[in-house]
Design a protein that fits this description.
Layout lengths: L4 H10 L6 H19 L33 H5 L5 E2 L2 E2 L7
Antiparallel strand pairs: 1-2
Helix pairs in contact: 1-2
GO molecular function, one term: ATP binding
Protein name: Aspartyl/glutamyl-tRNA(Asn/Gln) amidotransferase subunit C
EC number: 6.3.5.-
């Protein structure tokens, strides 16, 4: 697979970029070089490599969920600048 001038122009259009002819040529070359480098991965023998999601052993460091009593509505609203009908009252963001 290779990147064409049309591909560069399409991506530039999507990104709302205006590129000069020199920049289009430069990006075309750079993107093709990246793809050529990535194609080297196809040369690797990976049949005996076990799939992993992380290179290091990862374990959950979070505590177990435990059911416990929640904060009461009155306590939660105690420091609220304004409340109305048992809820936080905030300025409207839509008109």
């Amino acid at each position: 697979m290779s990147i064409t001038r049309t591909d560069v122009e399409h991506v530039a259009n999507l990104a709302r970029l205006e590129l000069s002819e020199q920049e289009k040529e430069q990006f075309e070359g750079q993107l093709n070089a990246i793809l050529k480098y990535a194609e080297k991965l196809n040369e690797l023998q990976t049949d005996d490599v076990e799939p992993t999601t992380h290179v290091l052993p990862v374990y959950n460091v979070m505590r177990d969920d435990a059911i416990r009593e929640s904060v009461s509505n009155e306590t939660a609203l105690r420091n609220a600048p304004e409340d109305e009908d048992g809820q936080f009252k905030v300025p409207a963001v839509l008109e």
